[in-house]
Amino acid sequence: MMRLLPITAMLAALLAGVPAVGFAEPKQRLIVLTDIEADPDDSQSLVRLLLYANQIDVEGIVATTSTHQKSRIAPASIQAIIDAYGKVQPQLLKHEPGFPKAQALKAVVRAGSQLYGMQGVGDGRDSPGSDAIIKALEKKDTRPLWISVWGGANTLAQALYRIGHDRTPEQAARLVSKLRVYTISDQDDSGIWIRTRFPDLFYIVSPGGYGNGTWTGIHTVEPDFDNTEVGNNWLAAHIQQGHGPLGAMYPDVSFGMEGDSPSFMSLIPNGLNAPEHPDWGGWGGRYELYTPALETTNPEGFTGNVPVLQEPRAIWTNAVDSYRPTVYNDYGRNVRAHDKVFSGYRTTIWRWRKEFQNDFAARMDWATKPYKGANHPPVVKLSPGDRLTVKSGEGFMLSAAGSSDPDGDSLSYVWFQYPEAGSYREPIKLGYAENHHTVWGQAPVVTKTETAHFIVKVIDKGSPALTRYGRVVVTFIPSAP
Predict the structure, then answer these.
(1) Is 185:207 a contact under the CB 8 Å cutoff?
(2) What is the spatial distance between Cα 447 and Cα 469, in angstroms, rounded to a whole number?
(3) What are the E-state strand segments in 334-383?
(4) pLDDT, tens digit, for every residue of 278-318?
(5) Which of 127, 231, 330, 411 is most buried by its number of CB atoms within 10 A?
(6) Cα torsion at 101, 102, 104, 107 (round to 10°)?
(7) How far is 382 from 434, CA to CA, in rounded Å?
(8) Beta bridge partners of 288
(9) Residue 223's closest CA among 350, 379, 331, 88?
(10) Which CATH code, of 3.90.245.10, 3.30.830.10, 3.40.50.720, 3.30.70.20, is assigned to 28-318?
């Protein structure tokens, strides 16, 4: 029998609900570099991003080149999508505050270099886009600046080139330390230059062939799993048709749905995402810090003719999750474990896909529906908190009993361990029922300090069903000798 917390302690903890990880954190700052018009997926991703423009500080949207569009940029296409957003922005404000006016977003659209790759880097190669990155870095803002690269990275490379030449080493190091970069593979030859020239720069990328890309998990079709939410019929019904002018701007899939979206989806405050911890996992995937061997990066695969070189240093890159989905039951306990375990680096994204697609669909509904006619996400509260320290072999409790829903919807719960996110990778069984708001566990016997991550999904029964999360990081410490 596990050793349980005293009843009085459990009751006190249940009454002391604490907001889940991330809800009290400031909004993330973001500049997007996009080769929009090289592929319809950039337009798709921009539509999604604008529906979260009240939860992310969008400080720049820069039109760039890439290996798929080497000699032109298309800022007018960015402006057109923002114009469509402007037509629904007043409606979006009826559902959540903070959606910026279209004029404010159009004011931060910039042109990057019209040259390809390293041809656009060096003296005399500055652009309004590279200048905007430097200006954003020099703002008196202590938050990091995320650069989401959907195409070529040379506008960022030029900003870094200028910083390296015009600032003292100390000033340059301070500015670079504020940067967080997520590149959708390498779509020009400037990415490897950046990673070589700036070895301390925080950089997420799946280098090499696109078949090596974690980001492909957003649209990969997984056998033995319900892939409805990435189907063309689902996109037509929930995004493109009957959802106002912004939904109508979402183009049909040509090569792959929204390959660029994972670069910002981990910035959305949902209780699961932890942007400063790519190894914790979230809607944008999970990544580990290491130097990948060249032969593991699919160098012979499709790269758009971008050369693939051995990485010079550790980067945040592909990590593997093993995932057993929960499946709905018609009778009895309302969920059960799927009979198959899925593993891979794409799994780190698609495991959350039904949830982030439903979230996208609900926000698109906001563009046309009144508040009472649409769904809104639940609010998660954790007891006794999002951090616990437990001695070796002792019992502990996890609870989301204080969670609520703004629409008054009934709530469902699913608790599970996320072993890859912690240092203790062995399974820890949670007692009671995993679909109850409260579960109990027993710490493993440890001889050194270990951590384990436990996630609760809180799912409303609105349409579409929306999910928010609570992440509890439990630290296990050895018992005193």
Answers:
(1) yes
(2) 31
(3) 335-337, 342-344, 381-382
(4) 999 999 999 999 999 999 999 999 999 999 999 999 999 99
(5) 127
(6) -170
(7) 15
(8) 317
(9) 350
(10) 3.90.245.10
CA distance 133 to 145: 9
DSSP structure string for 443-481: PPP-SS-EEEEEEEEEEESSSS--EEEEEEEEEEEPPP-
Are the C-beta atoms of 390 and 4 separated by less than 8 Å?
A: no
What is the C-alpha end-to-end distance of the chain, expressed in Å?
23
> What is the maximum span of the chain, computed from C-alpha positions, in angstroms?
72
Nearest to 472 by CA among 5, 13, 4: 13
pLDDT, tens only, 213-243? 999 999 999 888 899 999 999 999 999 999 9
Helix, strand, coil shares of the chain, percent, nearest 5, are 30, 20, 45
Sketch the domain layout of the chain as residue ranges: 1-23+379-481, 28-318
pLDDT for residue 95 is more than 50: yes
φ and ψ at residue 188, rounded to 5 degrees: -160, -175
How many other CB atoms are there within 10 angstroms of residue 463's CB atom? Answer: 13
Among residues 330, 338, 301, 119, which one has the least CA distance to residue 206? Answer: 301
Q: Tell me the C-alpha distance between 180 and 71, whole Å.
A: 27
Residues 33 and 150: beta-carbon distance below 8 Å: yes
Cα–Cα distance measured from residue 59 to residue 408, given in angstroms and rounded to the nearest whole number: 35
Residue 147 burial (C-beta neighbours within 10 Å; 0-12, 13-18, 19+): buried
CA-CA distances (angstroms) from residue 141 to 27, 144, 285, 362? 12, 8, 27, 32
Instruction: List CB contacts of 237: < 8 A, sequence separation 6 or more.
Output: none
Q: What is the pLDDT of residues 187-209, one digit of tens each?
A: 999 999 999 999 999 999 999 99
Cis peptide before 384 (omega within 30 of 0): yes
**Other residues' Cβ atoms within 10 Å of the Cβ of residue 242:** 13
Whether the pLDDT of residue 171 is over 90: the answer is yes
3-class DSSP state for residue 387?
strand
* pLDDT cut 70: percent of the chain above it: 95
Q: What is the pLDDT of residues 419-473, one digit of tens each?
A: 999 999 999 999 888 999 999 999 999 999 999 999 999 999 999 999 999 999 9
DSSP-derived 3-state class of residue 439: strand
Q: Which two tokens stand for residue 434?
A: 């995993």
Sole residue written with tokens 């719960």: 413
